[in-house]
């Protein structure tokens, strides 16, 4: 049974909310949480995630509408949470919305794997 896109978007919003409270250790270094240095905040990567999603999916006219409703454009702006809320609240889902959520899931998984202990406990 396939999970409805609205439910997938809501679940992704929860994951994103949890992740932005964590951090990513600097490349090549082990986590320095115990030393009081937490690396780079996941929230600092939000525009990068949006830029990636927009570059990959923004040319799809149906998804362009979702991006616009969420305040995302080629110039930047918007938020991951707003984009997910827009998808969750859509009366009818754009055919490409599933691919967009799959790509976002991949990004979220990457953040989770880069420092699972920190993001899981925050």
What does this molecule look like?
- This protein has helices at residues 5-19, 46-57, 61-69, 80-89, 97-114, 116-121, and strands spanning 23-24, 40-41.
- With 122 residues, the chain is mainly alpha-helical.
- The chain has one domain.
- Strands 1-2 form a two-stranded antiparallel ribbon.
- The longest helix has 18 residues, at 97-114.
- The chain starts with a helix and ends with a helix.
- The model is unreliable at 117-122 (pLDDT under 50).
Can you summarize this structure?
The chain has one domain (5-121).
Count of discrete domains:
1
Estimate the mean pLDDT confidence. Answer: 84
Number of strands: 2
Taken in chain order, the helices and strands follow as HEEHHHHH
Radius of gyration: 15 Å
Tally of DSSP helical segments = 6
Low-pLDDT runs of 5+ residues are: 117-122
Q: Class by helix and strand content?
A: mainly alpha
Order of strands, main sheet, comes to 1-2
Gross morphology is globular
Blueprint (SSEs and pairs):
Elements (H helix, E strand, L loop, with lengths): L4 H15 L3 E2 L15 E2 L4 H12 L3 H9 L10 H10 L7 H18 L1 H6 L1
Antiparallel strand pairs: 1-2
Key terms:
two-stranded antiparallel sheet, 6 helices, 122 residues, disordered C terminus, mainly alpha
